[in-house]
Each structure stands twice: as C-alpha cells, then as structure tokens.
Amino acid sequence: MNQIEWIAVDWGTSRMRLWALNAQGEIVESAASELGMAKIAQGQFETTLLQLIEPWLTGQTKPLPVIACGMVGARQGWQEVPYEAVPCSPSSQLSNVKTESQQVNVQICWGLKQQVPADVMRGEETQIAGLLHHQGSSYEGVACLPGTHCKWANLAAGQVIEFQSYMTGELYELLAKNSVLRFSIHDDDWHTEVFDKAVRAALDEPGSITGRLFGLRAESLVGNSAGYGSAARLSGYLIGLELASARRFWESNKVSIIGASGLAKHYQRALKLVGCSAHLLDTEAMTLAGLKAAYEAYKVESDV
Amino acid sequence: MNQIEWIAVDWGTSRMRLWALNAQGEIVESAASELGMAKIAQGQFETTLLQLIEPWLTGQTKPLPVIACGMVGARQGWQEVPYEAVPCSPSSQLSNVKTESQQVNVQICWGLKQQVPADVMRGEETQIAGLLHHQGSSYEGVACLPGTHCKWANLAAGQVIEFQSYMTGELYELLAKNSVLRFSIHDDDWHTEVFDKAVRAALDEPGSITGRLFGLRAESLVGNSAGYGSAARLSGYLIGLELASARRFWESNKVSIIGASGLAKHYQRALKLVGCSAHLLDTEAMTLAGLKAAYEAYKVESDV
Q1: Does B187 have pLDDT greater than 90?
Q2: SS3 B5
Q3: ipTM
C-alpha cells in the first residue's frame, strides 16, 4: 500500500528534509535539499516545495496535506506563524498557508514561547513532540537539544512546562572561527581528557571561564603545550558553563538528548561527568515522529 | 629649545601615534596615522615610518633614536621582539631593529608574558610603565586596561607581579555584530539602570549569564520590553562576568583604569557598584610616559 497520503517537511534555516507517507505512517519516498529557509527569496517558498515534491503529486486527485515545521514559519520564512505560550503541548497548533497551487494543503507548526524569562523555539518543539509520542504522554523528564542554540526543556504530562536556550554552539563558532582564538583552535585536535578537565573547571568555577579563554591563545605564544587539545578545551569550557547554568534541568531528572551527532555525544559525556546518565535519540526520527503526531491531530481537527 | 632628540611611537594593530621630543622631554611635534601594524605588508614598516617622520629628520646629523611599543613587535609586525617574563619591570627591555636608513636607530619595547596561567601583552606594558612612572616606583596597586582584550595587572615595587587578559571587548563585538543578537543590540540604546542591573546579575550568578544571552533576542520576539537597553545589558553582563573572575585584582586594592573612553567609564561605574573606587588615567598620556621611561633607560644603557 504505497499510496501517498501526506507529506512531512522539516524546513530549517540551512537545510530541509521531506518524507512522503502512506496511511499507515510508513515512509514511501523521501528527499533532502540544501534549500533552507535562509536561501530562499520571499515569494519563492511554494515553487521550491512544489519542485521538490513534484514526483509525489502524480495521480493525486485532491490536495495533499503537507505538514512543515521549523524556521519556515519565522518572519523571514514562508509565512510567519505564531508561538504558543508554555506550558502547552508542543506542535499541537498548526497554521494554514495560502498557496497558488490546488495540489497541496500546507500547514506549518507553531513555535513555542515563554514570557519570563523570555525565550522562543521553532522546530525543536516538533522534536520534543516526537519524544513525548515516543515515551508516552505521561512522560516526565528533560529534553536537551544541542545545536547552534541548545534548548533544554522540562516536560510533564505531555506538555513543555518551561525551557531555556543557550548560545553555546554559536559562541563556539564565533570564538573558534572569528576571534583571535582562530589561530589556536584546530577542530581536529580533540582529546577526551582535555575536554573532561575543561567541563569540570567550568562547572566548579563558572565565573572563571571568561578569564581562561584568552589563555588558549596565550599558551601557543608562550610555548606551553602549544595549544594541545584546544578545540576540546574550548568546547569543554562552553558546555561546562551551559551545564552550570542548566543545573535545575539535569540535576534530578531523566535527560533525553535529541541529536546523534558528535556534539550530542559531547553533551552526553559532559553529563556523565556530573553523574547524569542521559540517552541519545535521533533528531530526524524525533522530528518525523513529531510531524506524524501533528498530522494525526490535524486529521481529527479537520475531520479528514 | 626645540631641537628633536628622539621619537616616541605607539604602533598598534589598527593605528599609530608618533611624537617628536626634545632633550627636556617636551613634545615638539606629533602625528597620527591609520597605518596600524595589520595594514602594513612585511618589508614596508621602515618606509612607512620614514615617510611619517620625514619632516622631523631635517638637519639631524646623527641617527635619531626611535622608541616604539605595541603590536609592531609581534610576529606579524616589523620584527618579532621577545616577551619578558613576569615578575619584572614593564618596558625595561628593548630590541634594536636593523634598518636600511642611517637616519634612525629604532628600538622596540618587549611585551610581557606569564607562564602559568599562560598570558601575554604587547603595548599595555608600556602604559603600565607610564603609570608606575606617574605614581612613583614604590606604588602598590592594580592597573585595569579595558579594550578588545582587557588586561588586569597586579603591581608592586615597580614591577608587574602577575596579570590576566579577558576577551570581554571582543566577545561584545562578536555577539553584538556577528551573532543572532545583532538583530536586537543597538549601540545607541544605553540605559544606566539596565547596565547596573546586568552587572549585578553577572556578579551574583556568573554561571547564569550564558543562559541569559539568548533572552536578549527572545525578548524582542515575544514582545517584552522590545529589547529596551539591550546594548547596556549585554555590556553589563560581560563586564560583570569579567569582574566576577577578576575579583582578586579589585577586591582590596587601589585600581587605576588606563583609558578615558566610554568603555573605561563603564568599567569605573561597574567597579563603583561593588564598592571599588577606581580612577581613570588617559591612555595616550600613560603610553607616552612609558616610552619616556624606556628612552631614559635606553640612554643610560647605551651611554648616549
């Protein structure tokens, strides 16, 4: 039974991923593209989508539902859709997008917002929805989503209770590639013991890290260690600082890290150092599970 | 008596400043140029200097001493000169630079280095020498030199005992101009009460700041305060973090801030919030005083 019933789209800032699914929720076709939100001019989103899914539209007799999440719903995206305020169920609200084409019925998942302290997410809410679907709606625990702006979220009874974003990934990129440290940081210079030591230093004395950063440059100038493991040290300092600040999330909770990349493994390792055993879940699998849950809710709502 | 006896040069990364002085140490002529070290190709330093001081060389019958400090002595500069290890007197060592021209005798001041924790400075040591000259050699206290890489130094008996660099200025620039916060930070949006509150937040909970940064962006998205005083807040967070880490320098010491810019005044204000009354000294005046002290030592050494 390979009849396409709907299309799931994860449309982020720099990339997108598309799946065609049948009535049983099985993947019939899939595609990936580098045409992330940031690369598409205003007014070109529909054309871009239709070109990518054209082969999947053949033989369709009515509009095909397309459920999309991510930065496609931001002000600079296809159409700005609202943020739902926490506490709430993630990805439970969708906004319809007006299209020229009659072949698709496009819905974009709302992001989440928090008033105090102010915070927002777009895209991660769908991965969290996937986690909640995966774990069962009574799940209580914490989701950690490493990336450019790492998100931590407290979850209970199918809802996101509160969350916080950390600029750790962006800070790493800025320091390693755009600051004076660029001469001293070599991404392939990874040493686990250096990373561990840096995480512990940041957790023990978070206020000291800002003073240790220039040391990464100075060490290569004064000849100590010639910057041994500098990438691991910078990463350890920044992830350790984040853990110091995110203590309330991980201290007495089950933590699920959504992400299977090297970065996610560094978070897992850092958490292990502080006695927290976190498990890794695949980002793409969680996104797809979240989009499936959104589609199920959409079907009920629109009585398809 | 306006006969030029020597030339003082502050040759930094992005700018340079030159003074022609007579035997009484009075300024006879001065000049400034945007031809900082970073803008000059290897092999072009001598030509650049000679063009700038050409009018001052007229009528000189023997080589004119030129004492220079700053990044001109770095690996990417005119000629790499060593770092002297602390504890030591700042700017007391000079290296002679070989020149094609017989009209000048160029000397570059050594930087300072510290082995543990690793740290370096080039240029600030001459400003500190000026401060020590200004305060008298028995001075005990702390020098704070705000800038791209702010330096704190403990001084006693005419020596730099130890020092530490903070990347605060560079972090501010990266976050305000190159990160996602660039949409939310407006440099002209300064509010003193916001700055004060941010400094205190960083001092009270240094580990929390990394989690507050994204809030500067999120506030403008969720509509709270529309980012009121965001530049002051970012600056306050980063200076507060630095003060948290630099506590051993300012807690029970006299602090001299070398710098009269807006940034130096922000440091002065932040220090006042923690009960430390710091006074401001002009950077250029301290640099020139340091170069004068270096020239006096050079005269004794070379028996001029």
Answers
A1: no
A2: coil
A3: 0.88
